[in-house]
Amino acid sequence: MQHNLETIHDRQTMNDTIRAFLRSRNYVEVETPLMVASPDIEPTLTPFETIVKTPEGGSYTAGLITSPEYSMKKLLGMGMQKIFTLTKVFRNHESFGGIHNPEFTMLEWYTQGADMFACMDETEALVREVFIAFGREAGVIERKSVPDLFRELIDVDLANASKQDLIDACNRLEVHIDASDTESDLFYRLFLVKIEPTFTDRNILVHTYPKYQAALSRLTPDGKFGERFELYYKGVELCNGFTELTDPIEQRKRFDEESKTRRESGKTTFPIDEDLLNLLASVQNPSFGNALGVDRLLMLATGKTSLEDVLPFSAKKLFH
Length: 320
Known about the structure:
Elements lengths: L1 H22 L4 E2 L5 E2 L12 E5 L5 E6 L4 H9 L4 E9 L12 E10 L3 H18 L8 E4 H9 L8 H10 L10 H13 L7 E8 L14 E9 L2 E8 L4 H17 L9 H7 L6 E7 H8 L13 H4 L2
Parallel strand pairs: 1-5, 7-8
Antiparallel strand pairs: 2-4, 3-4, 5-6, 6-11, 8-9, 9-10, 10-11
Helix pairs in contact: 1-3, 2-8, 3-9, 5-6, 7-8
Keywords: ATP-binding, Ligase, Nucleotide-binding
GO molecular function, one term: lysine-tRNA ligase activity
Protein name: EF-P lysine aminoacylase GenX
């Protein structure tokens, strides 16, 4: 019980620090829905599904959000300039314990008129502020592009690598491949097996991912990479940020590709969020956004090693 009480006070300290940091930079805190018709169509994610029913007999397929991203971008399209939310998000097929929990808290924030490099600066400043709130120092945080990491660690030129080049690299480095692998699959395997393990004892902002890993980010001028970054702290992935894609035509194309991948893998395909596409063109270019795992940040800032140490009601405790 004492552990739970300490955790609750620690979370208040962190939430107060986050809110004070963002409000000092003129952000507006917003609330977004947790249950929506289009929760996420990212192929690697599995939303919790439900049915919304009305007394009149209406029945609607819905899901719990894996991120507030769609709603936040709609608010940008409506004219909001700097916004953040601290919200619960939900992801099915997640492990219990360690650094995973199917329900977790996410900080997501956006600024119109600035790119991912400005977001990296702000992310680093925020993390340092949270650590200081617990009497700790965040330490050195490196910055490296993904192409640089691939070239230095496994001798792969991502700017010019074909699918066959990635297959050859997997074979050379004894990384498992499958006949159904896409370029994205091959890249991710190489990243997971040969690149990510080097982050264990480092704090590093990794940026500029190949276009097939661009997610909802804007592409670089040469069209080969997405303006996306992630922060790894002692090997723990802490956030995923972007210079946001604001082209509704390109966004629809990516949504269509993701829906196709979901269908082929047997996952539920949710409808494309047309309201988001309609509002996207009104978002300024550049704009940045970032999604940060609050529970993981609290775990790291307090020197804990598992989310169970910072969650009073972890899934492992709820569903034992």
